[in-house]
Amino acid sequence: MDKLSVGDKAASSRPNRWVDPSFTDLPGESFSLSRRRKVVCANAETKRPRKRAGEAGSSGPHTSFLLKESAQRDQDEPWVDRYSPCSQAELAVHKKKIEEVENWIRVHSNTSKGGVLLLTGPSGCGKTATVQVLSLELDLRVQEWTNPSSQEPYSSSQHGEEKPLLSCQCHCQVRIKWRMNGLSCSSQLSQFSFLLRVNKYNCLKMVGDGGATDRKLILVEDFPNQFYRQPGSLHDILRRFVKTSRCPLVFIVSDSLSGDSSSRFLFPRDIQEELDISSISFNPVAPTTMMKVLTRISTLEAGKQSCGRMCVTEQTVLETLCSGSSGDIRSAINSLQFSSLPDTSLEKGLLRMKKDIHVTSLSKAVSRTNQRKKKSKLKKEQNEEQAIGGKDASLFLFRALGKILHCKRGKHEGAEAADCAPGPDLPSHLSHLHREALLVDPELVVERSHMSGEFFSLYLHQNYLDFFSEVEDVERASEYLSDADLLTSDWTSRSTMALYGSSVATRGLLHSNSQQVSVGFRPLHKPNWLLVNKKHRENSLAAQSLFRSFCLTPVSLQTELLPYLAKLTNPLRNQAQIAFIQDVGQMSLRRFPGRLKLEALTDKEPAQLERDSEEEEEGQAGVEEGLPASQPKPTTSQVLLEEEELIIEDYTSD
Amino acid sequence: MSLWVDKYRPTSLGKLDYHKTQATQLKNLVQCGDFPHLLVYGPSGAGKKTRIMCLLRELYGAGVEKLRIEHHTIVAPSKKKIEINTIASNYHLEVNPSDAGNQDRVVIQELIKTVAQSQQIQTSTQREFKVVLLTEVDRLTKDAQHALRRTMEKYMSTCRLILCSTSTSKVIDPIRSRCLAIRVPLPSTEEVCNVLTSICKKEGLLLPPELAKHITEKSGRNLRKALLMCEACRVQQYPFSADQDVPETDWEVYLRETANAIVSQQSPQRLLEVRARLYELLTHCIPPDIIMKGLVTELLSNCDGQLKTEVAQMAAYYEHRLQLGNKAIYHLEAFTAKFMAIYKKFMEDGLDAMMF
């Protein structure tokens, strides 16, 4: 670690510092730029060493530091930072979860052998805060990897991220900023092995350290870009780390709804098992907890600003913020701060925009919000426009599917149901088609699931049978699915028709489920079709290339020759052919198949069909691509090479 | 040891076992050393390819039987590489353009151009044209068929085309009119029996006429299938017995069991099981349309006469959708569900009628 401090000195003495001075010159900017308090603190320290002495001496260093900081900071300091939790009680995370993480950290920091923990969850659910608070309470120093951000002119044509900077921060007392000089050719990757180094060396005891323990915890939240390209390199480092580790290592990965789930990508199941990585998944912050935090903050602020510079935020506004943030506490606090800006005209302007009516006084706005609130409680899925801090509400696939499959409808013709489904009753001969008003908007659900309509239909198709009890309903549902497929079959019109297709599929399913029995929980599965289709094509290609010498058309080859070859005792030419015939030509008749290996869909799983989808498109529609003939099984291509020059004797047998 | 099908395949027009008048006509056709483009069509297992190969041998002699597999890489205008395998001798080139999927047009044009542009070296002793044999023409896209029509005329001097398909309905008119159409019908039951008996004799086996007849019926007069079945019988049991079971392919048995499962119970759960079975069939390389056809046949044999028209009509409806659509399972399943609903209703009505 002495190396580090030397580096630190060297870095600070250099004119070209890695910290951007503009950060502290314009604190307002840090609101948008800095994601976490740490960065701000770090900057503050380099520029303003005045507070260090006071901090370091205090016994409860972190909290007091925080309080002082917050007291002296500008108004413009983001509330997220100012009111960041400093005890377990303040964390907006479920107690059980905290306990779980705490137990893990306790167990793994007490033994000399470290472990690896993976925290996942949507952004703003308190993952980082939990680790920070717990490490504070358990007296652990946190050493964190932050991706080096380059302030220097690029020395090469490479990306800025390739800049070799490593900052290893301990946020308690000792902050080490350390610039590795003369290493501009080394990659982030090699630096990331700091894991191993941190492991090895202890921190120097500083004066006024208060005898802090040398126990530490490594936190990795940013990942070097290289790892996204080659997750294998991360795994290699981890393997080495696990062998020699002496302190716990915590990875924090935010869930994302878009296709690339980085946690799955960086930490696949097999690696998790191999390296014994424990994984804890956080849920979005619950509305009640969120309300508590927001109320606390707003009352604190109000108390501080009793002169009335800030207006007290109304309970209803808080509720709106709370429901609009979809469990992201960071964004909720940010929007709270924004909405309670002293400039009331702005606020009202925003509010008015939101209400879409002319309100002059706040009270009216509030009453209006109340009404809206009631309404939205009645109709759950009413999409509430939010002027301030509205997050794009999105659904995880699991929930989106559930919304369609469970088919929630209004129970009776209440006033609010009549509101959205007016119109006369159906004539008597069509009365069997009558349904209560839907509680979900199918198009919205599909849109929020972040999937193309076709894939959503595939998922529905895989799972809908479990939710039906009558064959007649199934018949109609399956016909709607077939219709939906037909609508999107032509690739020239697919982009326009896809929406109609998904609409037909979802609404068809909803309508044809006439029984409305609540089936309770049913596990959902991923569609088999993609796999089956891929295998079908692969096998067909393999069959053709392996048995080319028989000069048969694919159909007769697959339906006549192969199955009979399986029954004959002809010596075949090579091993691959024999294996293939045993695999494809024969079918096990005894077995009454349940389902194929079903891959259960977990509730957090985002859609991950990107690659498959491409293949699918390619093979089925063939917009631009032909059959993926270039990707048969390895054995096949080998055989092809072997047989290329082979002369067939089958015809020459006179 | 090769299969009987290949081992006893006739190699000259004179040795063909059936359709002898047609064989003579073909012989006369190539007598003068030239022939027009041909479109050979007929059901699977009737002997189209055999006749074509005999014809080529008649034209070029034994050299046409020296076959080699060639691997072509063709670059489409969109810079995409298409890989396709062809079977070729010095005199002809056989290709299944539907292997290339949607890019079949490029494949056809490129391959025919390559073949047609290379002149034969010794025109005195050999024919001055080469032959390109296109199989599965009915699976060509319309695009490719139109391209083919132009190419056919352009390279008439150096290249003859033989098109081979199971039906002409999907071949566009301009192509049909440019070709001499030759239909190869299925052999009759007696002819198949004769072939089976003679081949068994050559193998030194004694085939009881009853078994031969049985095999013929089971195979649907598809000679290739009949021979494979016969060979499988030989593996199963020898000496043959007259009432021996003719082995069926696994997938046919599987499909029949699937149909039985559909008939025996109609519920969403059963449909789920059926779906799993359909998936299983698909992974074993059985094309969806064959599954559909087999399923309908089995279901029809299982259900009452009153239902048959309706079921057949539905099957046609969904088979059409299957061809148009993207994902076969939707349509297969929709058909199954529809059948279940109709069948259930029929059975319930029947039950009601019995009660009163």
Q: What gyration radius of chain B follows from the Cα positions, in whole Å? A: 24 Å
Number of strands of chain A: 8
Structure annotation, total helices of chain A: 31
| SSE order of chain B, one letter for each helix or strand | HHEHEEEHEHEHEHHHHHHHH
| Domain unit count of chain B | 3
Low-confidence stretches of chain A: 1-73, 151-186, 203-212, 345-349, 352-387, 413-422, 590-596, 606-654
Provide a count of the helices of chain B: 14
Output mean pLDDT of chain B. Answer: 88
Q: Spell out the CATH superfamily of the largest domain in chain A.
A: P-loop containing nucleotide triphosphate hydrolases
Distance between the termini of chain B: 66 Å
- Helicity of chain A, as a percent range: 40-55%
CATH T-level topology of the largest domain in chain B: Rossmann fold
| Biggest sheet details of chain B | 7 strands, mixed
The CATH topology of the largest domain in chain A corresponds to Rossmann fold
How much strand content do the residues of chain A show? 5-15%
| Strand line-up of the largest beta sheet of chain A | 4-3-2-5-6-1-7
The CATH architecture of the largest domain in chain A comes to: 3-Layer(aba) Sandwich
Q: So what's the CATH class of the largest domain in chain B?
A: Alpha Beta
Query: CATH-wise, what's the superfamily of the largest domain in chain B?
Result: P-loop containing nucleotide triphosphate hydrolases
Subcellular location (chain A): Nucleus
Biased composition (Acidic residues) (chain A): 641-654
Region (Disordered) (chain A): 1-29, 42-64, 362-385, 602-654
Keywords (chain A): ATP-binding, Cell cycle, DNA damage, Nucleotide-binding, Nucleus
What does this structure look like?
Chain B: It is found in: Nucleus. The complex is a heterodimer of chains A (654) and B (356). Chain A has 31 helices and 8 strands. Chain A is mainly α and 654 residues long. Chain A folds into 4 domains: 280 residues, P-loop containing nucleotide triphosphate hydrolases (Rossmann fold, 3-Layer(aba) Sandwich), CATH 3.40.50.300; 92 residues, no CATH class; 96 residues; 111 residues, no CATH class. Chain A has a 7-stranded mixed sheet, sandwiched between helices. In chain A, helix 28 packs across helix 29. With 356 residues, chain B is α/β, with parallel strands linked by helices. Chain B has 3 domains: 180 residues, 3-Layer(aba) Sandwich (Rossmann fold); 48 residues; 99 residues, Zinc Finger, Delta Prime, domain 3, CATH 1.20.272.10. In chain B, 55% of the residues lie in helices and 12% in strands. Chain B has 14 helices and 7 strands. In chain B, strands 2-3-4-5-6-1-7 form a 7-stranded mixed sheet, with helices on both faces. The chains are: A mainly alpha (654), B alpha/beta (356). At the A-B interface, helix 24, helix 25, helix 27, helix 28 and strand 8 of A face strand 2, strand 3, helix 9, helix 10 and helix 11 of B. Strand 8 of chain A pairs antiparallel with strand 2 of chain B.
